[in-house]
Each structure stands twice: as C-alpha cells, then as structure tokens.
Amino acid sequence: MTLDDVEAMTTEMSASLRRGLLSGRSASSEEMRIAITRVENRTRHLMDPSEQWAIMDRVAKSVPITTLAEEANVRFVLERDFEREAKARGTLPAEFGRERRVTHVMRAVFDSPTREGLRDRTDAYLCRFSILELSSGEEVWADSFDFKRVARGNFLD
Question: Which residues does 51 contact at the CB level (< 8 Å), separation at least 6?
C-alpha cells in the first residue's frame, strides 16, 4: 500500500464518515473517542505487527481524517494492547492514556484476491473498516475501500 493509496482511501473514508456516523456532529458536540486497533491482515503479503499499527496510524493522522475529527470533535486513541506493549518496551510513559474514556473502536480487515495470467498478475486490495459503539456493541459504521496493482511481464518459469 502506497502513501497515495492511503491518501485516496482516507479521502473516501472521511466523506463516508461525514455522510454516516458523523453527520450532524460539530466541534461543539460531545467528544467521541475512537480506539484504533491494528489491521487484521488476510492478504498474501506479510505484514508484521508494527506495519499493521503503522497503517492505522497513517489513517488516523491523515489530513482528511484529522480535519474531519476537528470538525466533529472526534479523537483517535491507541488500543490498550498497543499501549501496554509500548509501555513495557519503554516507548510510552507509564501515565500515558489514563484519561481514555473510549466510546468506540475502529477495526480494519485487509483482503487481497489475486488474478494471475500468462503476462500479468493483478492484486486487488479490499480494505474494510468498521466502528463499533462500546456501550451497545453495535456496529455503527462500516465501509470498504479498494485499489489494484498490476504487475506485467512473462510469468512462465
């Protein structure tokens, strides 16, 4: 996934959130705190946990999402597991995250079906994001974003 892919995906995502879950919210709305989890990788491409966290960090810190968050009074915070691991490694101070008050959780699942021919291979990536409301356990928003990569050449041994 390239930076351009993340930018395009977060632009679409912010529009979807604005039309759905965050419609009617403003900077004066009660604060919504969304804990982000690392990506669940179902692709054939290996992603270590740090890459899975980095993708979600890029999403949460992208310009379209941070702009929307300011306009709708939404804060993205790290999932408690990440905090615990980072504190154990000493990369976060012990007092970090004490005032969490998380109201929602954002999850992401990445899938990638691949089509191979004699002269090219196409990897299609489907990124499904969902937000759960913690008080009810209900999924309050979900959307999918996709992009493709084509490799050309002779794939015969």
Answer: none
Residue 59: closest CA among 72, 42, 82, 78: 78
49-106 pLDDT, tens digit per residue, is: 888 888 888 899 999 999 999 999 999 887 766 555 655 666 545 554 455 688 999 9
Where do the structural domains in the chain lie, given as residue ranges?
3-152
The one-letter amino acid code at 136 reads S
Quickly tell me which residue has 């270590």 as its tokens. 48
CB 34 within 8 A of CB 105: yes
CB–CB of 43/112 below 8 Å? yes
- pTM of the complete model beyond 0.85: no
- Least Cα distance to 153 among 114, 130, 119 occurs for 119
CATH pick for 3-152 out of 3.90.1150.10, 3.40.50.10610, 3.40.50.740, 3.40.50.2020: 3.40.50.10610
